[in-house]
Design a protein that fits this description.
With 382 residues, the chain is an alpha/beta fold. It folds into 3 domains: 144 residues, NAD(P)-binding Rossmann-like Domain (Rossmann fold); 129 residues, no CATH class; 65 residues, Rna Polymerase Sigma Factor, Chain: A (Orthogonal Bundle), CATH 1.10.1740. It is built from 16 helices and 12 strands. The strands form 2 sheets. The chain has a 7-stranded parallel beta sheet with strand order 4-3-2-1-5-6-7, sandwiched between helices. A 5-stranded mixed beta sheet has the order 11-10-8-9-12, covered by helices on one side. A hairpin with a 4-residue loop joins strand 10 and strand 11. The longest helix has 18 residues. The radius of gyration is 20 Å and the shape is globular. The protein binds NADPH dihydro-nicotinamide-adenine-dinucleotide phosphate and magnesium ion. Magnesium ion binds next to helix 7.
Length: 382
């Protein structure tokens, strides 16, 4: 066992945040919770505070902070807003930060955690999509490890253990196909929010569940893989694999393929990101290949999933193209969840925002934030 690790979690009340706390609770002698940042689910945050006794917490707004202040144990420091996220990421004395907020709102706090020299368990893929060059350059500069939590990236990371970069022929991300994988484009016209939120294999936050149905999630993951593994887009593929048993695989130049398998359970990649390079016991259900019987695969159909094609095109353009793509998608998904637009309109909004976008290459943080704001405004107005 390694020494006691002090962890802070950005987005502790979400799907990844709560599962990270589950993993920490399974190994109470190895992990201590230093800071927790939530959005607006203060009831759950207070429960987490009682159970895990963090020294510092944060909520999305000053009003929410005023609400919970009287209920916090003495000595717990309380912060709020974007500044609160940065405080949890970079203040206190955590040595490891799990980034599990949803969306590019996590960018500044992720950069602050890296600047403070903390290793990162990275779930918040939107930060790499919106500003991958800034995050990876700073991590390199500070000697900080970016440990992937996303299951596909954890799989690739595990397959690459001990391998040389020049021996990689390609990496392939598997995609479950999301809630609508068996529907035609015509049938997508009438789907509801409730239909979209019913993912066949994974229980996740609402936004990523919708992203899986549009295949935007796989597009974000291709871009995430480009930054995490330093590979050109030509070496990153996607294949449809409805069972979600093979989490992703790498082909090497001698034609050998190494894959990582397991039942879908996010606690496994979360735990590996926390214990790397060690592997610890996990209560995850063991995979029996004999019971699984067969694993199936289908070529990715880019006409069926136009948003995946667009995401990869944005990745190849680089600079602010992926920033605009991500921001437009966050707004379009929020509008769909509010029942303001139909499902297929998400893809159209992405196309329309990108058509009007002129990409800046190598943007600064300020240019990224300006582009993010402009793409959001446009996506709201369409
Ligand atoms: P959820 O929606 O379940 O959780 C999001 C978390 O972020 C919540 O704790 C929420 O707080 C918090 N949050 C949202 N906005 C703010 C804000 N402005 N300030 C502070 N906190 C905020 O999302 P997931 O856990 O599903 O996803 C989180 C990230 O992990 C995403 O980037 C996703 O793509 C990635 N990911 C998720 C996987 C999964 O299985 N869920 C798999 C792989 C990657 P509150 O609820 O209190 O408002
Ligand atoms: Mg994933």
């Amino acid at each position: 066992m390694c020494r006691l690790k002090k962890i802070s979690i950005l987005g502790s009340t979400g799907s990844i945040g709560t599962q990270t706390l589950d993993v920490a609770a399974m190994h109470p002698d190895s992990f201590e919770i230093d800071g927790l940042a939530a959005g607006s689910n203060t009831a759950l945050l207070l429960e987490q505070v009682r159970r895990f006794r963090p020294r510092r917490v944060s909520v999305a707004s000053k009003e929410l902070a005023d609400d919970i202040r009287p209920q916090l144990p003495a000595g717990v420091e309380l912060f709020s807003g974007d500044e609160g996220l940065v405080q949890i990421a970079a203040g206190g004395d955590a040595d490891y930060v799990v980034t599990a907020v949803m969306g590019s709102v996590g960018l500044r706090s992720t950069l602050a955690a890296i600047e403070a020299g903390r290793d990162i368990g990275l779930a918040n893929k939107e930060t790499l999509v919106t500003a991958g060059h800034l995050v990876t350059e700073l991590a390199r500069c500070k000697g900080v490890n970016l440990l992937p939590i996303d299951s596909e990236h954890s799989a690739i990371f595990q397959c690459l253990n001990g391998e040389r970069a020049q021996d990689i022929a390609s990496i392939t991300l598997t995609a479950s196909g999301g809630s609508f994988r068996d529907l035609t484009r015509e049938q997508l016209r009438n789907v509801t929010v409730e239909d979209a939120l019913r993912h066949p294999n994974w229980a996740m936050g609402a936004k990523i569940t919708i992203d899986s149905a549009t295949m935007v999630n796989k597009g974000l993951e291709v871009i995430e893989a480009h930054w995490l593994f330093g590979l050109p887009y030509e070496q990153i593929g996607v294949v449809l694999h409805p069972e979600s048993i093979i989490h992703s695989f790498v082909e090497f130049r001698d034609s050998s393929i190494i894959a990582q398998l397991g039942n879908p359970d996010m606690r496994v990649p979360i735990q590996y990101a926390l214990t790397y390079p060690q592997r610890w016991h996990s209560p995850a259900q063991r995979l029996s290949l004999a019971q699984a019987g067969q694993l199936t695969f289908r070529e990715m159909d880019f006409a069926r999933y136009p948003a995946l094609r667009l995401a990869i095109e944005c990745g190849k353009i680089g600079g602010t193209a992926t920033t605009a793509f991500n921001a437009a998608n966050e707004v379009a998904v929020a509008r769909f969840l509010r029942r303001d637009i139909p499902f297929v309109r998400i893809e159209e909004i992405l196309e329309e925002v990108l058509e009007r976008h002129t990409a800046e290459s190598h943007p600064s943080l300020e240019q990224i934030e300006d582009c993010d704001r402009a793409a959001r405004t446009l996506a709201h107005s369409l």
